[in-house]
Amino acid sequence: MGLMVVRLDRFDLNLLVAFDILVEERNVTRAAKRLNLTQSAMSAALRRLREAFSDEILVQHGKKMIPTASALSLAPEISGVVADLRGIIARGLSFDPAHSQRIFRIVASDYVTTVLIGPMLERMQKSAPGVRIEITLPRNDIHGRLEDGELDFIVAPERFLEGPHPRELLFEERHVVVGWSGNPMLQEPLTEDYYYSAGHVAVSVSRDGTFIENHLREHGDRRRIEIICAAFSQVAWMLPGTTRLALMHERLAKVMASRLPLRILNAPIELPVMREMLQYHHARSADTGLIWFRDQLRDAAADRIV
User: Fold this and answer.
1) Are residues 110 and 31 in the same domain?
2) Averaged over 3-23, what is the pLDDT?
3) Is residue 1 part of a domain?
4) Is residue 29 a part of any domain in this protein?
5) Could you tell me if residue 98 is inside a domain?
């Protein structure tokens, strides 16, 4: 049997991106949507991939499509190649923040956006007026999207990070108890008895939970939850005029207390310190644009230390 020679000058490297997404999605329509292509263009890409690799890549199984054994074995290598190519291209582009129109894509909660990214944008307005930022709330697929190069950064508590990619500490955060400043029970040091007898406001932002809610649940939470919010920034608005309490990030609590009649107290129970981390793809660690953006995040974190 003769050796098959692949002519790279005749191979469209964009097909590797299509392969990566097709094997992950296992659906032509969804893959087309992610790559902003028509379904017919995505089908044509699959056909060309089948010809190039002499393999079906995806086969119909009932109403689903499943990758072939060959496709599954190639998938990790091709995913790595795609990430490496993106990194090489990014490194080859000079980055001038004063004139750049680049979009940086970052996963961050509304809490991080309020206490870190918002203040950072004030400084960037002058130094990098054309730079744009696309912020995505945490979802269950963020690590796969970082792996695929669709995201530049993830900012999240340490316990929620996955994978081998570099990570670094941005800042540490503690949680405090917040309530209405007119609540007579909060004029004295907060007791554990009152803490547990009061109604509470909690947060549920994703299936993975939040740092503090997960900790409390794992240690036998005794609070009486009366309200569950879908965002950290909603919590403070649920407190004025009531006797309810909430655990909030200290930085966010201070921001909200400057706008609403709130009182901030130390928690009467032991709580762990939260480590807010920054994660990025190892293949893009030398990207000059991402290095610059990491510096902006670090500087903003240092400025916001309580």
Assistant:
1) no
2) 74
3) no
4) yes
5) no
Q: Are residues 21 and 162 in the same domain?
A: no
Overall domain count for the chain: 3
Enter the pTM of the model: 0.71
CB 263 within 8 Å of CB 179: yes
pLDDT tens-digit map of 227-272: 999 999 999 999 999 999 999 999 999 999 999 999 999 999 999 9
Taking a C-beta distance cutoff of 8 angstroms, is the pair 212, 247 a contact? yes
Amino acid, res. 47:
R
- For residue 34, what are the domain limits? 8-91
Distance CA 82, CA 13 (A): 9
The neighbour count for residue 256, using CB atoms within 10 Å, is 21
Rounded alpha-carbon distances, angstroms, from residue 38 to 28, 135, 266: 10, 26, 55
State residue 1's pLDDT score.
34
Exposure of 62 in the CB half-sphere (CA atoms within 13 A) = 1
Closest CA to 48 of 74, 81, 22, 76: 22
